[in-house]
């Protein structure tokens, strides 16, 4: 084998290891997500995990798989309403992850308006977001 083929083999193996690690990090732990929901992520301040219990934000009971803006008796910001009207997304990993990472940036990107989301809390760590999403999946 030449040095070049060894380098290509090494690079391919390294890429596979990185991809595997990213896939493992993305798998959520619902128990840790529950702890985050009720403690450091501070979700509980504005959201309930109980059905029909509204706080400042909507109840997150049944949020996974729910269409955006579908929570009854909830006043949504005009930016959020515009984003829902444009894209009609459903809350799942693909939407919850970027929303939890930076709610204002995510909603602004969908609505086309540069406005702050009422939810200002950002969850920077990918594993924390995956864990919170895993917990939200259990709320049914």
Nutshell version of this structure?
Helix content is about 55%, strand content about 0%. With about 140 residues, it is mostly helical.
Commentary on this structure:
- 53% of the residues lie in helices and 0% in strands.
- The termini are far apart.
- The chain has 6 helices and no strands.
- It has a single domain (3-138), classed as Cytochrome c-like domain (Cytochrome Bc1 Complex, Chain D, domain 2, Orthogonal Bundle).
- α2 packs across α6, α4 packs across α5 and α4 packs across α6 (126-138).
- The protein is mainly α.
- The longest helix has 24 residues, at 3-26.
- The model is unreliable at 5-25 (pLDDT under 50).
Tell me the strand percentage band.
under 5%
Please tell me how large the radius of gyration is: 19 Å
- The number of distinct structural domains comes to 1
- Name of the CATH architecture: Orthogonal Bundle
What's the total helix number? 6
Describe the oligomeric state of these chains in a short phrase.
single chain
Strand runs, count? 0
How many angstroms separate the termini?
Answer: 56 Å
- The CATH class, by name, is Mainly Alpha
What is the CATH topology assignment?
Cytochrome Bc1 Complex, Chain D, domain 2
Order of helices and strands: HHHHHH
Low-confidence runs of at least 5 consecutive residues: 5-25
CATH homologous superfamily title:
Cytochrome c-like domain
Structural class: mainly alpha
| Residue-averaged pLDDT | 83
- Residues in helix, %: 40-55%
What is the approximate shape? globular
Sheet with most strands = none
